[in-house]
Fold this sequence. Notes:
Strand content of chain A: under 5%
Structural class of chain A: mainly alpha
Shape of chain B: elongated
Mean pLDDT of chain B: 92
Number of helices of chain A: 12
Shape of chain A: globular
Helix content of chain B: over 70%
Number of strands of chain A: 0
Low-confidence stretches of chain B: none
Distance between the termini of chain A: 43 Å
Order of helices and strands of chain A: HHHHHHHHHHHH
Radius of gyration of chain B: 19 Å
Order of helices and strands of chain B: HHEEHH
Mean pLDDT of chain A: 91
Oligomer: heterodimer
Structural class of chain B: mainly alpha
Amino acid sequence: MTDWDATRRKVVRDAMGVGVAVGTYGISFGALGPTSGLSVPQTLALSVLAFTGGSQFAFVGVVGAGGSVVSGAATALLLGSRNALYGLRLAPLLSLRGRQRALAAHLVIDESTAMAVAQSEDAAGRLAFWSTGLAVFTMWNLATLLGALGATAFGDPAALGLDAAIGAAFLGLLWPRLAQRSSLALAVAAAALALALTPVVPPGIPVLLAGTLAVAVGVRTPAGAS
Amino acid sequence: MIWAGVLGTALGCYLLKLAGVSLPGRWLESPTVRRVATMLPVAMLAALTAVQAFASGRAVVVDARAAGLAVAAVLLLLRAPFLVVVLAAAATAALLRAFS
Lengths: 226, 100
């Protein structure tokens, strides 16, 4: 029993830590929303309702750079498709039903998935999923609101260098995924393709085509050679 | 118009998550699906980084944002926290603009 108490305390403490860490991303996202032409309610609506950081950054990035809202949304959804895979992996662990499934689905993100699958016991995994999901949801939205209000309090985004912050934010999100050499090669190819296409197609489309490149390479790579 | 994009993004992102926790798990066994799921964020985040730093409408330019990105890359190599990286990139671009 004391073993479980200790495990429980550790899981909840780790979840809080992840929540605080993610809050720093939330402040950045909140500040970039108004910088990209979204209102404070629109920025906050993305955090509360979409609740998946990479896709939210993608939407404001594409729209802020002059892309259409359709290509912004398409980029966000293509990037958010990985959450479906996380859900597939989590479903047997969480054994969800009805309304609980609808609520749990909203909390399926990078952090809650990583924390849940890192636990050695199922009960700890379930606790890690819910506590991380709720901690991140709380901190992410509070931080978004703070960042958005802070950004609107200041003046010209370009004078503050906030347009440069968006590129840095994407690089920061990309960084942990570059550990493998094949990932690095793909990242360089995708970046080069996007810049080569920039003069040719409307803003927002180069990123979508880079995503399509990844799907094509992934589908055509022979089994076992990844 | 932006509201339509915000709400469409929110609905789509939620439905993707709901599909994941609702569909049969055998989808996960496909190596192709797993490979695409690993590669897709890498390619898209790299493309977004490049476009944000070097695209201005349909032109490819090197300006203060590129310097901000370079500073961000150095700080990431030094394992600096995310917020520090983002703020340093913004400060670099702002300073360059103020003194040019």
